Amino acid sequence: MAATGQSPSSRDACDGLHQALEGFDAARAGEELHSLVRELYPICRSITGEGLRRSLRILSRVAPLEVREVPSGTTVFDWVVPPEWTLRAARLVGPGGEVVCDAARSSLEVLNYSAPFRGRVSRRDLEAHLHSIPEQPSLVPYRTSYYRPDWGFCLPHERRTALAEGEYEVLVDSSLADGSMSYGELVVPGAEAGEVVVSAHCCHPSLANDNCSGMAISAALARLLSGLEPRYTYRFLFVPGTIGTIAWLALHEEEARRIEHGLVLACLGDPGRMNYKRTRRGDAEIDRVVSHVLAASGQDYRVRDFTPYGYDERQYGSPGFNLAVGALTRTPHGEYAEYHTSADDPSFVKPDRLADSLRRCLEILLVLEGNRVYLNLLPKCEPQLGKRGLYGSVGGSSHAAARQMAMLWLLNLADGNHSLLDVAERSRVPFGDLREAARALEAAGLLRVAGREEARP
Amino acid sequence: MAATGQSPSSRDACDGLHQALEGFDAARAGEELHSLVRELYPICRSITGEGLRRSLRILSRVAPLEVREVPSGTTVFDWVVPPEWTLRAARLVGPGGEVVCDAARSSLEVLNYSAPFRGRVSRRDLEAHLHSIPEQPSLVPYRTSYYRPDWGFCLPHERRTALAEGEYEVLVDSSLADGSMSYGELVVPGAEAGEVVVSAHCCHPSLANDNCSGMAISAALARLLSGLEPRYTYRFLFVPGTIGTIAWLALHEEEARRIEHGLVLACLGDPGRMNYKRTRRGDAEIDRVVSHVLAASGQDYRVRDFTPYGYDERQYGSPGFNLAVGALTRTPHGEYAEYHTSADDPSFVKPDRLADSLRRCLEILLVLEGNRVYLNLLPKCEPQLGKRGLYGSVGGSSHAAARQMAMLWLLNLADGNHSLLDVAERSRVPFGDLREAARALEAAGLLRVAGREEARP
Amino acid sequence: MAATGQSPSSRDACDGLHQALEGFDAARAGEELHSLVRELYPICRSITGEGLRRSLRILSRVAPLEVREVPSGTTVFDWVVPPEWTLRAARLVGPGGEVVCDAARSSLEVLNYSAPFRGRVSRRDLEAHLHSIPEQPSLVPYRTSYYRPDWGFCLPHERRTALAEGEYEVLVDSSLADGSMSYGELVVPGAEAGEVVVSAHCCHPSLANDNCSGMAISAALARLLSGLEPRYTYRFLFVPGTIGTIAWLALHEEEARRIEHGLVLACLGDPGRMNYKRTRRGDAEIDRVVSHVLAASGQDYRVRDFTPYGYDERQYGSPGFNLAVGALTRTPHGEYAEYHTSADDPSFVKPDRLADSLRRCLEILLVLEGNRVYLNLLPKCEPQLGKRGLYGSVGGSSHAAARQMAMLWLLNLADGNHSLLDVAERSRVPFGDLREAARALEAAGLLRVAGREEARP
To answer: How far apart are CA A338 and CA A326, in angstroms?
Structure first.
C-alpha cells in the first residue's frame, strides 16, 4: 500500500492527511485496493471460523491490527456468541453424478453456517434445502442460517429448475463446535481521550463490494493513521456484522462511551455515487463533516437520514448507546442488483471507485481532525493585519484577497462558539483555506485553539 | 346511532376506536348523522332560550349529556350572561295583508334576540329593521342583536326591494327576561387526569352546516367514548358560541387548566375538503395528531395557522388560557357562499361528508389516545428478535418486512424522547403499524409505556 | 432641511416620525439632500485633517453635532491614531509643462495621505507612484496609503499610457505631523438607557455616493431626532472609516455596551435597490425591523447575511463587541462600476433615491421606536369590545373589519412574549394598523406596555 502509506514527513495528523491527499496517486491506490479485494474475495468467511481468521491475517499485513477472540457461548447483551463454524467441504451431486453445487467452486454455493449432513436425498426432499432467486435466474444468492441449525445449497434458479428427478448425494462436511468468534482491532492513540471508531464488517463470504471493499479501505486508513499522531484516538474494528459489533460493545462499554465520532464503511467499490447515512442523532459533528466533504467533492452524492436497518450503525445507534456513528458507502446495501449474489464479484468493484472512496475518507478524517474551535486573542475590533504583513499588498492578487477573507472570517468567528467547519459553512470559504489562515494567525499570535471548556460550538 | 355506537367488545379506548373504524359503516353513519341534522335544523336556537334547550334534549337522546343552566346576570370575566330570550311569534305583514316575514316559516326570518314590539310602521321607518344581502338577493341572511336591544326581520333582498309603500304590521311577541343560558356537558372519565375538550356551538337557528353538523358529530363521538375507558378524561361541551364558552371557562377555571388537548367542531357536512386550524401554540400535540391523520387520509385537506377570529378556539386560545384547542371543519366559516344564509339548509349538508368527518374524528382520537411514549427495556444494541419469534421468516413477505421495520424503528426510538407519533413521522411507518408493533414488543417484554416523568418527547 | 426637519407638533418620537412620514415631501427632501452632497463632494477628506473637519462643520449646520478630536499617537486597541495629514497642494507637471494631475482639480488626483515630496522624477521612476485602472481607462481611481508613507498620483489609465518620456515635476506640499483625528457626534437622549447608533463614514475625498450620501442622510435623521423625545438614546457618529470607529469603540467601551441596535449608513443615493446587510448576530431586532420595512415598501430590495468585510459594521460586529449593527445601503460597496472612481460624482447620486433612502430610514426608526411588548389586561377570553365602542358597527366597512382584526390579534398576542413586530409578522396586519390598535386598546384600559422584566419576546 505504498501509494497511501508512505510515511509523511510530519507526524501531525492534519499535515499527514494533507500530504497524503496532495500526493494521492489514484491509479496506484486503486490498483492496490483492488488487488486486496481480489485476495480476500474467494475466502469462505462467516461470523466465526477459519475463513474470517484468515481474512484478518491478510489485513494485518496491511495495517498492524490484532486478531482477538470471543469464546463461543459468551453472553453479549441479549445475544450469545454461537459455536464456531468449520467448513471442510460442501458438495451436492446429482443423480447422474454431476456436481450441482460445490463450496470449493464458490463459497456462496453452501448455505452459510450449514450444519453437517451426509446422505442421499430425493429431489423432492432436497427442495427445502435449496436457495435461488427466481427474478435473477443466473445468479447464486448469498444465504445464511446462523441461529437455526440447517444445511443447504445456493444455486442459480435456472439450474435449480432444470434439476432432474432422482436421488442426490449431499455432503456437508462441517462442524458447529465450541471455539470462538474472531475480530480485528487496531487502536491508534491520540492526543485526546475522545475516540473515533471506524468499523467494517468482514463476515460475508465471496462478496466483493459488500465486505471486501470496506475491509480494504478501512485497512488502508488504519495503515496511514498508525503512522501519525492524531488528535483523536482511532479504533479500527474489523468485525462480524451484528454479533461482532454487539460483542465488542457488550465487552467494552467503557471504551464505547469514549466514542465521539464514527463511521461504518461498506460497499465502497461499486460504480455508484457516494452515499452517507447520518447518525441516529442526525446533526452530529461527523454528519456535518461528511456532508461538507461530499458537497465539496464536486461529485454527485447523497446524504440520507438514519434508519435502524443496514450495517452496524444499527448497534452503535441503539438507544442505549446512541453513538454518533454514520455509514459511508457508495450504493447502499440492497440498492444494486448484484447485492448478495454471485454478481458481486471483483469485476463489479472498480479500482478508480475504490481510490475515490479512499480519498473521501482521507478528506473526512482531515476535516474531523482539523475541526478546532479557535479564540481570537484581539477580539475587540479588527487587529491591524497590515503591520503584521498579513494584509494583501496593494492591488493584491485574487489569491491574496481570498486569503485575507479567510483571515477576516476566522477572526470574526473565533469567539469560542464556532468550529472551523462552522466558519467554513457560514463563510463558504473552503475548509483548507481556513486551516491555512488559522496557521498564519496562530503564528502571528492573533489566534489560539480553545480548550474544551472554552469551546461551545 | 347504531352504526357508530355499537358497544365495542373491548372497553380500552384504542381498541374501541380501532373496532369502530374497522367496522365503520359510512352509509349508515351518514344517514344517521344527516337525520339528526334534519331534526335539529328547524329549531329557533339562540344563545339562550327554549330552542337551545330543546336542541340539547335531542342531543341527550344520542349521548348521555346533561343540560346545565347559568343564570342571567352572571358575570363571566368581562361579560354578563344576558337575559333569556323567549320568542313566541314574529311576523311582518304588508299593507295588502301579505305575510312578508314569519319566524314560524323559518327561524332566520326574525332578527335573532329581537326585543318585543307590536305596532304599525311606515315602509320608511321599517327600513332600519330589515336585513338582506344585496349580493345574494334570493337568500335570507342570519343576523343577531344580542347586546343592543332591537327588533328586526331578515328577508331576501329581492323581496325587500319589491316591498310596497304603506303601513306594515309588526308583531314580535318575544321577551327578554331573567332566566338562564343553557349548555350541554358530558364528561367521560379517563385513566389520566389530563382532559380533552370537544366543543361545538349550538346557538345558531336554522343553519345546517354551521352548527347542526358539529352538534351531530360531537354527539356521535360522545356516545362512542362514553362506552369506553379512555386514557384521557373527555369533556364534551355543547355551548352557545362565545358567551357560552366564556361562561364555562370563567366558572370552571380549575377544570380548564386540566385541558391538554381540544377540538372545536363545526361546519363538518359541506362538500369541501377537511380544514384544520392549528391551536394558538401552533405546535401542540393535537396539531400534530390532526395533521398526521389528515395527511394519512389520502384526501385533499388544508392545515392553517391560528387566527384570533372564528369559533370558540378564540376563547380557549386567549392569552390567559392559551389552551391547545384547534378547530376542525370542512369549509371554514365565511368561505362558502351559503354561510349564514338560508342556503345553509339540510340539502347543503351531505351524508357522506358527515360520515367522512366522523371517521377523521375517530382516527384523531385513536392517534391521540395511542400516542404513548415507550421505553426499550433492552436498549443496548438490538434485542434478538429471532429467538422470540418476532423476526420475519426466511424470504418473508413484504408484510413481515414492514412489521419488522416497525419493530426496529420503535425499539430504536423508544428512549423516552419519542412519542409514537414522533416515531411515525420520523420513520414514515403508519401509526397503526407502530401501535401493532408496540403491542407485540410489549407482550415480548421488550417495551413498556414510559411514565409521565420518564417521557420527554 | 425644512422638508424633513419641521418640528413635529408632538415630541413623542413615534408621533414625530409618523408625522414626518405623513408630510414627507420627497421632491424637496431629495433636493436638499442632493444639495448637501454637492457641497460636501469637492472637499479633500481623509481619516484626519482639515478636509474632514470642514465637512463635519458643514454637517453641524444641519444637525447640532459636535466635532471631537483624538490626538495622533493615541493607542486604540491594536491600532494607533496616525499623524494628521495636511495637504496644501499636489501637482504633477509633465516635461512639456502640462499639468498631469492636480489635487486642486479633483481631490482624487493625489494619493490620499501622500507624504511630502518635491523634485524632478524620470518617467520611469514616476511609474511606481502612479495609480490608474486599466479596465476603466477614462476614470481616476481613489487610492490611499495611510500606514505606509508614500506619495503618488491617481489618473485615468488612458492619460497614464500617453505620458511622454522625460522629467516630471512633482509637488506634494503636505505634512504628516502630530495633530488629531476628528469625528462628529450627536447624542439625542432617550427615555431608556439603551442606545441606537447611526454611523456614517466621512473619510473619503470626492466620492459622492460612497460617503457624501451617507453623511447627508445621517445628518437629516439626526436633525429630525434631535427635535423629538425618543424612547432610545440615539448616538449619531460621523467618523473616519475603520480607525475612527475603532477609536470611538476603544475610548468608549462602556457606552458601546449600551448599544442595542445600530445602522451603518452608506451608498444611499445611487439608482440601485435598497440593500440591507444583517448584523453579525443575524436575527437581531434591527435585522427584523429593517427586513420588515423593506418588505413593506413594495419595492425591490435585498437582505444579505453579515460578512466581516465592508464598512464599520466590521468593527461593531467584531467578536469582542458583537453589537447588533447592520448596514443599510442601496448598491453595496464594490458592486457598482463607479465605486471608488471619479465617476462616483454628484451626477451619479439621484435626489429621488436620496429621498427614498431617507424615507426608509424614517420608517425603520418608527418601527424600532414603536416595537413595544404589550400586556393584555383582561387576558382570559376576549374582552367585550362592543360595550367599549371598539367593535365595528353592523355591516361595518372593510376598514372597521381590518381595525377589529388588528385589535383581536393584538389582544391575543399581548402576553409579554410578542413585540408589535412579532404580531405584525404573525398576523400580516400592517405595523401601523397595529400601532393604531394598540393606542385604542391602551386608551380603553385593555392593554399596557410591558416593563423590561415582563417582556420576553
So the answer is: 24
- pTM for the predicted model, two decimal places: 0.92
Residue A202 in 3-state DSSP?
coil
Radius of gyration of chain C (CA): 25
Half-sphere exposure (Cβ direction) of A434: Cα atoms closer than 13 Å: 27
Distance CA B30, CA B19 (A): 18
- The predicted-structure confidence for C23-82, as pLDDT tens digits, reads as follows 999 999 999 999 999 999 999 999 999 999 999 999 999 999 999 999 999 999 999 999
Diameter of chain B measured on Cα atoms: 94
Count of beta carbons in the 10 Å neighbourhood of residue B22: 8
Residue B140 Cα distances to A211, B129, B154, B160, B336, angstroms: 77, 14, 6, 10, 15
Distance from CA of A18 to the nearest CA of C (A): 28
The H-assigned helical ranges of C304-430 are 313-316, 351-370, 398-413, 420-427
SS3 content of chain B, % helix, strand, coil (to 5): 35, 25, 40
Could you tell me which chains touch chain C, where touching means 3 or more CB pairs under 8 A? A, B
Give tens-digit pLDDT for B176-230.
999 999 999 999 999 998 999 999 999 999 999 999 999 999 999 999 999 999 9
Cα C123 to Cα C97, C101, C120, C142, distances in angstroms: 14, 14, 10, 22
CB count, 10 Å around CB of A340? 20
Question: Which pLDDT score, from 0 to 100, does residue B395 have?
Answer: 43
3-state SS assignment for residue C4: helix
Q: Which residues in chain A have their CB less than 8 angstroms from residue C77's CB?
A: 378, 380-381, 383
pLDDT score, position C285? 98
Strands (E), C269-332: 274-277, 301-304, 325-329
* C-beta atoms of C380 and B242 within 8 A: no
Q: What is the mean pLDDT of chain B?
A: 95
* Residue A367 to chain B, least CA–CA distance (Å): 29
Say yes or no: B376 contacts chain A, CB-CB below 8 A: yes
Q: Which residues of C touch B246 (CB under 8 A)?
A: 381-382
* Burial per residue of B240-272, b for 16 or more beta-carbon CB atoms within 10 angstroms, e otherwise: bbbbbbbbbbbeeeeebebbbbbbbbbbbbbeb
Q: Hey, are the CB atoms on C386 and B147 less than 8 Å from each other?
A: yes
Give the per-residue pLDDT at B370: 96
Distance of CA C290 to the CA centre of its chain: 13
Is B382 touching A (CB cutoff 8 A)? yes
d(CA A151, CA A176): 12
Report the candidate in C380, C383, C258 with the shortest Cα–Cα distance to residue C321. C258
Q: Cell digits for B260?
A: 391538554
Please report the sign of the dihedral spanned by the C-alpha atoms of residue A354, residue A360, residue A362, residue A368: negative
Q: How many CB pairs under 8 A join B and C?
A: 65
Q: Is the pLDDT of residue C395 over 50?
A: no
Interface contact B77-C380, CB threshold 8 A: yes
- Residue C428 CB partners (closer than 8 Å, separation 6+): none
- What is the predicted pLDDT for the residue at C35? 98
Residue B142 has pLDDT above 90, yes or no: yes
Each residue's pLDDT tens digit, B301-324: 999 999 999 999 999 999 999 999
Residue C299 makes CB contacts below 8 A (sequence gap 6+) with C273, C274, C356
Beta carbons of B319 and C412 less than 8 Å apart: yes
Alpha-carbon distance of A70 to A53, in angstroms, equals: 12
Q: Does the CB of A80 have a partner CB in chain C at under 8 Å?
A: no
Distances (CA, A) of B112 to B48, B103, B135, B452: 11, 10, 21, 48
Residues in Cβ contact with A440 at an 8 Å cutoff, skipping those fewer than 6 apart: A390, A403, A407
Give start and end residues of each alpha helix (H) in B41-152.
50-62, 123-126
Question: How far apart (Å, rounded) are the C-alpha atoms in residues B85 and B105?
Answer: 19
